[in-house]
Amino acid sequence: MSRIGKKPVEIPKGVDIKIEGEIVKIKGPKGETSSKYPEGIKVVLDEGKLLVERTIETRDVRALHGLTRNLIANMVSGVSTGYQRVLEISGTGYRAQVQGNKLLLALGYSHPVEFELPAGIKAAVDQKQTQITLTGIDKQQIGQIAANLRALRPPDAYKGKGVKYAGQRLKLKVGKAGKK
Fold it and tell me: Final residue of a domain: which of 35, 65, 80?
């Protein structure tokens, strides 16, 4: 039996959960979200806790048991506290600006890069324009947007210029030795 799947999901105050057929709808102070869970899995609301149980004992359902529980727990956490991901931009002339739901990035290309943010994701840039903070209620979407932004100019191996996650440590290569 899945150890993660057996753990109940604690529901914080201010979060409402409705189970309609195979869809879980979660509403909280940060927003609302819904998700469909797979066949063979049953979600039960019981005294302020959410339990994820299996109805069929097949290999596929056993594999999805813990995953479904964690996805629901992430949704509950997202609508109650939200998620954030911080990116750092390093390099001469590299900077970011927020204009509405777009990020304008100067990343050393001959043109500024416009990055459209999807609905539900907000971006904030610090005073120096070198740190981007993404916030939202969907953990997977935040991670994917951060990965897409990093892919625009990943940090290079020699100087470390580019877009990196906050706290990411880069192992820089040694450049060529000069001629004597």
Answer: 80
